[in-house]
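Dear colleague,

Following up on Tuesday's group meeting, I ran the structure prediction for the four-component complex that the binding team flagged. I've pasted the input sequences exactly as they went in, so you can double-check that nothing got truncated or mislabelled along the way. The structure tokens for the whole assembly follow below. Feel free to forward this to whoever is handling the docking comparison.

Inputs:
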Amino acid sequence: MTEPKPLRADARRNRARVLDAAEVVFAAKGTSATTEEVAREAGVGVGTLFRHFPTKEALLEAVLFDRVRRFADEAELVAAADKPGEVFYTFLTSWVEMSSAKNAYGDALAAAGVEIPKPPSIAGIRVLETLATVLSRAQDAGAVRKDISVDELIPVIIGASRAAEHVGGDTELRDRTISVMLDSLRPRVGS
Amino acid sequence: MTEPKPLRADARRNRARVLDAAEVVFAAKGTSATTEEVAREAGVGVGTLFRHFPTKEALLEAVLFDRVRRFADEAELVAAADKPGEVFYTFLTSWVEMSSAKNAYGDALAAAGVEIPKPPSIAGIRVLETLATVLSRAQDAGAVRKDISVDELIPVIIGASRAAEHVGGDTELRDRTISVMLDSLRPRVGS
DNA sequence: TCTCACGTGGACCGCGGGGTCCGCATCACT
DNA sequence: AGTGATGCGGACCCCGCGGTCCACGTGAGA
């Protein structure tokens, strides 16, 4: 059912432009940025924007989706490397850095009453699987305490993102903060 | 200058009502809740609300302020106790739990472009001083790693709050998460 | 109880932003 | 090049929300 409909060349171009612009604008000015602003950044009329994304919410979703997807790809590559411990912390750090921005989108959706679990499933699940893999490998290698599950890991990541977000411009302090927070995952003396 | 102006009895009552209502409503439905909603909850007209708080922002500020002040009082009591390590973690835990809600207000203000440092100074400074005291005492007692400063502690707290916030209803998971995150502050093997 | 200043409530206003609409441009197939 | 279909743009509509205003109620000093 619902055949994909081939879509004209310029249309595809514009869609991509809008998506990129949205990512930039929302990252810079928060999700409360105006649809018109996004359209301007994309060099496109609002009408065009709404043609591709019937609602602002849908646009937010699309951006979020896109990020997660791209990140999942990267993550799979990293997961394939050896040095499980190193991989784990690198992975988390980059996730944290990425989601400093991403969380805002999630929030916006949540605030708008959208059921988050629904859309990110396809891309999201893959990330979670990857995360679980990386985690258990790191645990086997003794780089991460054993009494941590993915369920607990996720809040920690989110928390770290928020902390990073809060610190803002001061990158030196931010790095230190992230590092401190991720330290909570390292094995303790008696474990 | 600007003498306090004694303010009528019912006026004081209404002001308090609005403040309480605001706290409840904003906590429940987020800071995007409507001024009218707050007014209804307070059993008051919007006019009254705006008489006491000339702007929604001002109301947010007032609520935030109030919370911080109350918390600072509590904190001072706790800080006076002995057992520095225990105090430290108790303190942080309760702070984290409290600020799961409070952060939202801070965010809202930040988003609105209000200079945060300005208003919370009076109440805020006191908390920071208390925090510094508690921290250094706990460090002296060996309950907290020495290479942590208040500057880093704050993001960690915020992060933990956010994580807690994210977990939401599942209190068991939330407690575990907070505990894991605060573990990052405990002294490490070689320190 | 009389009085009036202080406080109240909610109808009302203006604006900002999401979403629509339609005349015009552009694409793509011949 | 000709021509229909597919997109484009941005003026426009609508409504939700912060904030105002003023006729009315009510507290408090005489």
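Helices of chain B lie at 9-29, 35-42, 46-52, 56-80, 84-111, 121-140, 150-167, 171-183.

Cheers,
M.
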